[in-house]
Amino acid sequence: MTVDEFGPLGGQPVPGGCHFQKLVPVDSLNPRSKLPALGGMLPILVSLLHTLLQLAGVSRRQRTTLACRDRFHWGRHSTFTRALASRAAAANYPQIMSLIARALAPLAIASLLAAATAQAAGYHAPRNGFGQPDLQGTWTNASLTSLQRPAMFKSLTLTEAEAAALEKRRAAARAAQDRPTDPNSGAPPEAADPGGYNASWTDPGVSLGRIDGQVRTSWIVDPANGQLPYSAEGHKAYVEALRKARNSWDGPENRPLGERCILGFGSTAGPPMLNVLYNNNYQIVQSKDAVAILVEMNHDARIIRLTDRKHPTPNIRPWMGDSFGWWEGDTLVVETTNFNPGESLRPYFNNSILLSPNAKVTERFTRVSPKQILYQFSVDDPATYSQVWKAEMPLNSAPGPVYEYACHEGNYALPGILAGARKADREGKKIEAVDVSGR
Fold it and tell me: Are residues 76 and 41 part of one domain?
């Protein structure tokens, strides 16, 4: 859509030394204006005002004095206010105002408000230097909301009052977990899990996710119950993969990828990209032909090419799969398949998931405000699930920068785990198995 930057004067010079610019796309106006919510509305409103003044019989010269480019700059509303006032005064302000009042009949007012409301409701993402919707920046999906809906919730949404009460309880629990360890408490009982010193190193988020003003209890929206729709065979494969990951000590190859510093734990690297206990930041960088997503957890980097829509042959299976993308209006659509079999299990407490190597994940990134990207995705994996399942979550702007995540597990924890298992072997002890049957 294009409008004349200052009304229907068509880029022609007018008496008095003013020159109006040629037609420009609304979306090309400065997106980082101090009035971001009005960035797309201003040219429409000014154009309508000129039209109304013209209908009221105001001359071109008088209309020009109201919006001359030499004093008007987008985003500088104080400059605009002074310029408008001074030029209106110079052009017989009382007469102009009288004509405006006559022009703004009820129908005209209704049309003006309708146009303004429609533009405000339909946020358009700013464009980068390549003319693409600008998704660049640092974003986070840290949240108390998780992929699947906990049993305590019976619906997809909560009221703000319900959300505030839950967030308050979580904050109190977190404060208790953050207390320093009592140095006089003594050693924990033998064979008991000593736990961590406190929870200061975790950063799961402090609030539930909100999408379009609604408080969400799960990211999954389909099925409606907010649960992963495993098929019978898919759930069997999931439990077996989880059992192997939790109870295999023969060598590093059987340990989860997070312990081996290959990918972040859970599905934080994606796709789909899910929130975990900490390090939930993502940095998006765009070029003309690709989009890069730097994942804070384990410094994974996804490269999404925009140049073709052809996946490699089935024998090519990189970590995080093979991704290509394309633009649909303001939305970046990404299709990923050819997953590495080693990342089929994404273990993360009660929100572990399993994707077969031939799963197809389709993601949609839509910037819905200066501070949020709506991240939607669907998983099509008939080998594991009884239906295509869908989810959506907000990616909220974060101040950044994203610091390097230096994974230490592979240097310290993994050798310790395997050394403990070898000691048990030498002593003829059987390591107690972790029961995963209820997962």
Answer: yes
